Amino acid sequence: MTVERMHGSIWDRYTQAIETGATDVLRDLRADDVTKEFPQSGERFVGRESILASESLDRSRPSFQGPRWITSLGPDAFVAEALLGGERAGSWLVARLDLHADGRIHREIEYVADPFEAPEWRSRFVVPFDPTYVTDGPSVNAIDDGTSEELIRRLLEASTTGDLETGMAGAHPDWEGYYPQSGERFVGAQAIIDAHRDYPGGLPEEHVIGLAGAPDTWTLGPLMIPTRVTGGGASWLGETAITYANGIHWFQVAIAILREGRLWRLRMYYVPTTEAPDRRAHLVERFDPTSPRRS
After folding, report:
1. Which helix (H) or strand (E) holds 209?
2. Range of the domain at 270
3. pLDDT tens by residue, 222-272
4. Number of Cβ within a 10 Å radius of residue 135
5. How many helices (H) and strands (E) does the chain have?
6. Per-residue pLDDT tens over the stretch 166-222
7. CB 276 within 8 A of CB 41
8. What CATH number corresponds to the domain at position 145?
9. I want to staple 252 with a disulfide (CB 3.0 to 4.6 A). Which of 1, 122, 211, 240 is the partner?
C-alpha cells in the first residue's frame, strides 16, 4: 500500500468513527500521548482520553460529504480537506494529522473554514469553479524529484512582506490557485499577483506559525520569525496568522503542491478566531495559536 493510500484509509476510518461516535475505533486510531489543537479557539487537548471526553460533549456529531483531498506531507503526516455536511454544510474541515511509526495518530490540528461570497472586485482575476468537484484526484504523492526548499522559503518570506511577485517567481507554467470557500480559481501566477496588488485597503499583516512537509526543523527567517521548515517532499502545509487593517485576527491555511521543482497548485483557506466553549474548559489547556508551533 502506498503512503497516500494508507493516509486515505486512516482518514476514512477516522471520519466514519467521528460520524458514528465509534469510540472504540477512535481509541484504536489514536496513540496514548496524542494531542489535539484547535488554533481558532486556542485550545489544546492532551491525551487520548481527554480528547474522547471532549468529543462526547459535542452537541451534534459532524458529518462529511464529498469531496475530500488527502495530501501526504511525508510518510508520517498528512493534511485532509473535507467538505462538511449537516449543521455545518458547505464549510471545510482542514486537518493535519501526524503519525507515530506504528501508524497511530499522535497529533491532530483542525481548522473549520466557512464558505463566503466571492467579492466583486476580484472577479476580473479569477474564474469560478465548483469546489465540490475534485480536479486533481483524491490524493497527491508526497515524493517528487523536484523538491525545492528554496522555493518554500521564498514563499514564506513573501507571505510576511507582501512581495508576492518575488514569492511566485518561477511558478510552474500550469500553476493554479484555489479558494475552495468561495469557489474562486486563479489561472496563472500573474492573476494572483495582480489581485494582491489591488487588495482594497492594502494587504493585512501576516506572520508564519507553521510550515510542514516532512520531519520538522526550526530556523529564523529574515524577519526573525521562527518558522517550521522541512527538507523534503513535494507537498507542504503552511499556517499564517493574519491581522487585518481593522485589527481583526484570522488564520490562513495553505496547501502547496510542487511539480518539477516549481509551485504547481495552491489551495488557501481563511478562518476566523472563535471563542472556546465553556462546556469543555476543564479538559483543555490554553495556548497562543499565533506563536510558532512546538514540535
Report:
1. strand 205-212
2. 3-275
3. 333 333 333 345 788 888 777 776 777 888 888 888 887 788 888 999 999
4. 13
5. 6, 17
6. 778 878 899 999 999 999 999 999 998 888 776 665 555 555 556 555 444 333 333
7. yes
8. 3.10.450.50
9. 240
Say if residues 95 and 108 touch (Cβ distance below 8 Å): yes
Closest-CA residue to 1 (of 139, 144, 107, 96):
139
The type of residue at 285 is E
Q: Among 285, 286, 1, 267, which residue's Cα sits nearest to residue 134?
A: 267
- 169 domain-assigned: yes
DSSP 188: S
- Asked if residue 280 is part of any domain, the answer here is no
Mean pLDDT to the nearest integer, 262-287: 91
> Quick one: cell of 74?
511525508
Rounded-to-integer distance, Cα 188 and Cα 203, Å: 20
List, in order, residues 6 or more apart from 139 with CB less than 8 Å away: 4, 5, 7, 8, 69, 70, 71, 72
Query: Do 79 and 68 contact (CB within 8 A), yes or no?
Result: no
CA dihedral 227, 232, 236, 242 (to 10 degrees): 10
| Stated pTM of the model | 0.86
Backbone angles phi, psi at 13, to 5 degrees: -65, -40
Residue 270: φ, ψ to 5°: -125, 125
Three-state DSSP at 282 gives: helix
The answer to the question of residue 292 being in a domain is: no
Cell numbers linked to 27: 481509541
Structural contact between residues 111 and 274, judged by C-beta atoms closer than 8 angstroms: no
| Gap between the Cα atoms of 111 and 180, Å rounded | 14
Does residue 21 fall inside a structural domain? yes
Nearest residue to 180 (alpha-carbon basis) of 236, 126, 129: 129
- How many structural domains is the chain composed of? 1
